[in-house]
Amino acid sequence: MLVLNFNPFPNLETDRLLLRRIDNNDVKEIFELRSDAETMKYIPRPLVKNLDEAIEHLALIDSGIEKNEVINWGITIKGNTKIVGIIGFYRTKHEHYRSEIGYMLLPEIQGKGIATEAVRVIIEFGFNEMKLHSIEANIDPRNIASERVLQKNGFIKEAHILENEYYDGVFLDTVIYSLLKKNHK
Q: Which end of the chain is more exposed for a tag (fewer CB within 10 A), N or C?
Protein backbone atom coordinates (compact mmCIF):
# COMPACT_ATOMS: atom_id res chain seq x y z
CA MET A 1 0.00 0.00 0.00
CA LEU A 2 1.21 3.47 -0.90
CA VAL A 3 2.31 5.60 2.07
CA LEU A 4 2.71 9.36 1.56
CA ASN A 5 4.70 11.84 3.61
CA PHE A 6 4.82 15.52 2.61
CA ASN A 7 6.82 16.63 5.63
CA PRO A 8 9.09 18.45 5.06
CA PHE A 9 7.21 20.05 2.20
CA PRO A 10 9.03 19.47 -1.11
CA ASN A 11 9.58 22.62 -3.15
CA LEU A 12 10.16 21.80 -6.82
CA GLU A 13 12.10 23.74 -9.45
CA THR A 14 12.37 23.89 -13.22
CA ASP A 15 14.37 26.29 -15.38
CA ARG A 16 11.67 28.96 -15.10
CA LEU A 17 9.48 27.91 -12.19
CA LEU A 18 9.46 27.42 -8.46
CA LEU A 19 6.63 25.26 -7.14
CA ARG A 20 6.24 26.03 -3.45
CA ARG A 21 3.86 25.57 -0.57
CA ILE A 22 0.93 27.94 -0.59
CA ASP A 23 0.64 30.00 2.59
CA ASN A 24 -1.52 32.73 4.11
CA ASN A 25 0.33 35.40 2.13
CA ASP A 26 -1.19 33.89 -1.04
CA VAL A 27 -4.85 34.47 -0.16
CA LYS A 28 -5.30 37.23 -2.78
CA GLU A 29 -3.83 35.01 -5.48
CA ILE A 30 -6.03 32.08 -4.41
CA PHE A 31 -9.01 34.42 -4.63
CA GLU A 32 -7.88 35.67 -8.05
CA LEU A 33 -7.57 32.12 -9.39
CA ARG A 34 -10.70 30.61 -7.87
CA SER A 35 -12.99 33.62 -8.47
CA ASP A 36 -12.11 34.09 -12.15
CA ALA A 37 -14.82 32.67 -14.42
CA GLU A 38 -12.35 32.14 -17.28
CA THR A 39 -9.89 30.24 -15.09
CA MET A 40 -12.69 28.10 -13.64
CA LYS A 41 -14.53 27.59 -16.95
CA TYR A 42 -13.71 23.87 -17.16
CA ILE A 43 -13.65 23.14 -13.43
CA PRO A 44 -17.09 22.24 -12.10
CA ARG A 45 -16.73 23.95 -8.74
CA PRO A 46 -18.35 27.15 -7.42
CA LEU A 47 -16.44 30.38 -7.81
CA VAL A 48 -14.89 31.77 -4.64
CA LYS A 49 -16.88 34.90 -3.81
CA ASN A 50 -14.69 36.66 -1.24
CA LEU A 51 -11.42 36.54 0.67
CA ASP A 52 -12.99 34.53 3.51
CA GLU A 53 -13.84 31.74 1.07
CA ALA A 54 -10.29 31.94 -0.31
CA ILE A 55 -8.97 31.55 3.25
CA GLU A 56 -11.21 28.50 3.70
CA HIS A 57 -9.88 27.02 0.45
CA LEU A 58 -6.32 27.66 1.59
CA ALA A 59 -7.07 25.90 4.90
CA LEU A 60 -8.46 22.93 2.98
CA ILE A 61 -5.25 22.73 0.90
CA ASP A 62 -3.13 22.97 4.04
CA SER A 63 -5.14 20.32 5.88
CA GLY A 64 -4.73 17.85 2.99
CA ILE A 65 -0.98 18.34 3.04
CA GLU A 66 -0.76 17.97 6.82
CA LYS A 67 -2.77 14.73 6.66
CA ASN A 68 -0.58 13.45 3.77
CA GLU A 69 -3.73 13.00 1.67
CA VAL A 70 -3.15 15.53 -1.12
CA ILE A 71 -0.37 17.88 -2.13
CA ASN A 72 -0.69 21.22 -3.88
CA TRP A 73 1.97 23.63 -4.98
CA GLY A 74 1.70 27.28 -5.84
CA ILE A 75 3.27 27.88 -9.24
CA THR A 76 5.55 30.91 -9.30
CA ILE A 77 7.87 32.32 -11.93
CA LYS A 78 11.41 32.38 -10.52
CA GLY A 79 12.26 35.82 -9.18
CA ASN A 80 8.61 36.61 -8.36
CA THR A 81 6.81 35.24 -5.30
CA LYS A 82 3.29 35.80 -6.73
CA ILE A 83 1.40 32.58 -7.40
CA VAL A 84 0.24 32.39 -11.02
CA GLY A 85 -1.29 28.94 -10.70
CA ILE A 86 -1.89 25.87 -8.57
CA ILE A 87 -0.93 22.28 -9.33
CA GLY A 88 -1.13 19.11 -7.33
CA PHE A 89 -2.16 15.53 -6.75
CA TYR A 90 -5.74 14.81 -5.67
CA ARG A 91 -7.83 11.72 -5.03
CA THR A 92 -4.94 9.37 -4.44
CA LYS A 93 -5.91 5.71 -4.54
CA HIS A 94 -3.32 4.31 -2.12
CA GLU A 95 -4.16 0.68 -2.75
CA HIS A 96 -3.66 1.19 -6.51
CA TYR A 97 -0.59 3.48 -6.38
CA ARG A 98 -2.51 5.97 -8.52
CA SER A 99 -3.24 9.66 -8.09
CA GLU A 100 -5.03 12.34 -10.06
CA ILE A 101 -3.22 15.46 -11.22
CA GLY A 102 -4.92 18.83 -11.46
CA TYR A 103 -3.75 22.33 -12.33
CA MET A 104 -4.96 25.83 -13.11
CA LEU A 105 -3.26 29.01 -14.29
CA LEU A 106 -4.28 32.63 -14.48
CA PRO A 107 -5.49 33.48 -18.02
CA GLU A 108 -2.60 35.88 -18.71
CA ILE A 109 -0.07 33.08 -18.00
CA GLN A 110 -1.74 30.46 -20.19
CA GLY A 111 -0.22 29.52 -23.55
CA LYS A 112 3.39 30.07 -22.46
CA GLY A 113 4.37 26.50 -21.63
CA ILE A 114 4.08 27.07 -17.87
CA ALA A 115 1.52 24.30 -17.30
CA THR A 116 3.51 21.83 -19.42
CA GLU A 117 6.66 22.60 -17.43
CA ALA A 118 4.88 22.37 -14.06
CA VAL A 119 3.18 19.08 -14.99
CA ARG A 120 6.53 17.65 -16.09
CA VAL A 121 8.18 18.31 -12.72
CA ILE A 122 5.34 16.95 -10.62
CA ILE A 123 5.18 13.81 -12.76
CA GLU A 124 8.81 13.22 -11.78
CA PHE A 125 7.91 13.83 -8.14
CA GLY A 126 4.89 11.52 -8.37
CA PHE A 127 6.82 8.61 -9.85
CA ASN A 128 10.14 9.04 -8.03
CA GLU A 129 9.14 10.37 -4.59
CA MET A 130 5.52 9.32 -4.11
CA LYS A 131 6.22 5.95 -5.79
CA LEU A 132 3.10 6.12 -7.94
CA HIS A 133 2.46 3.46 -10.56
CA SER A 134 0.13 5.68 -12.61
CA ILE A 135 -1.12 9.25 -12.79
CA GLU A 136 -4.48 10.27 -14.19
CA ALA A 137 -6.05 13.54 -15.23
CA ASN A 138 -9.78 14.15 -15.59
CA ILE A 139 -10.59 17.02 -17.90
CA ASP A 140 -13.53 18.63 -19.61
CA PRO A 141 -13.38 17.54 -23.28
CA ARG A 142 -13.75 21.17 -24.37
CA ASN A 143 -10.48 22.04 -22.59
CA ILE A 144 -8.20 21.59 -25.59
CA ALA A 145 -5.31 23.48 -23.95
CA SER A 146 -5.26 21.09 -20.99
CA GLU A 147 -5.47 18.13 -23.36
CA ARG A 148 -2.36 19.41 -25.18
CA VAL A 149 -0.47 19.84 -21.89
CA LEU A 150 -1.20 16.22 -21.00
CA GLN A 151 -0.28 14.90 -24.44
CA LYS A 152 3.02 16.82 -24.41
CA ASN A 153 3.80 15.06 -21.14
CA GLY A 154 3.09 11.58 -22.53
CA PHE A 155 -0.43 11.04 -21.18
CA ILE A 156 -2.76 8.91 -23.29
CA LYS A 157 -6.53 9.14 -23.52
CA GLU A 158 -8.15 6.29 -21.62
CA ALA A 159 -11.84 7.17 -21.79
CA HIS A 160 -14.48 9.70 -22.68
CA ILE A 161 -17.32 9.33 -20.21
CA LEU A 162 -20.60 10.85 -21.29
CA GLU A 163 -22.55 13.10 -18.94
CA ASN A 164 -21.09 11.58 -15.78
CA GLU A 165 -21.11 14.81 -13.75
CA TYR A 166 -24.02 17.08 -12.96
CA TYR A 167 -23.06 20.65 -12.18
CA ASP A 168 -24.99 23.89 -12.23
CA GLY A 169 -28.00 22.34 -13.97
CA VAL A 170 -26.01 20.66 -16.75
CA PHE A 171 -24.67 17.16 -17.32
CA LEU A 172 -20.97 17.25 -18.22
CA ASP A 173 -18.66 14.79 -19.96
CA THR A 174 -15.26 13.80 -18.57
CA VAL A 175 -12.18 12.70 -20.49
CA ILE A 176 -9.64 10.62 -18.57
CA TYR A 177 -5.97 10.71 -19.49
CA SER A 178 -3.31 8.59 -17.81
CA LEU A 179 0.41 7.97 -17.70
CA LEU A 180 2.01 4.77 -16.44
CA LYS A 181 5.43 4.95 -14.82
CA LYS A 182 6.76 2.32 -17.22
CA ASN A 183 5.74 4.50 -20.21
CA HIS A 184 7.24 7.70 -18.82
CA LYS A 185 10.47 8.82 -20.42
A: C
- Per-position DSSP letters for 63-89, written without gaps between them: HHHHTTS-EEEEEEETT--SEEEEEEE
Q: How far is CA 70 from CA 60, 90, 139, 162, in A?
A: 10, 5, 18, 27
Q: Is pLDDT of 118 > 90? A: yes
Which residues lie closer than 8 Å to 113 by C-beta, 6 or more apart? Answer: none
Give the integer Cα–Cα distance in Å for 177 and 93.
16
**For position 49, what pLDDT does the model report?**
96
Of the chain, the end-to-end C-alpha distance in Å amounts to: 25
Find, among 39, 7, 36, 44, the residue nearest to 115 by Cα: 39
Residue 62 has pLDDT above 90, yes or no: yes
Helical residues (DSSP H) of 10-143, grouped into ranges: 27-35, 51-66, 114-128
Interatomic CA distance for residues 43 and 28, integer angstroms? 20
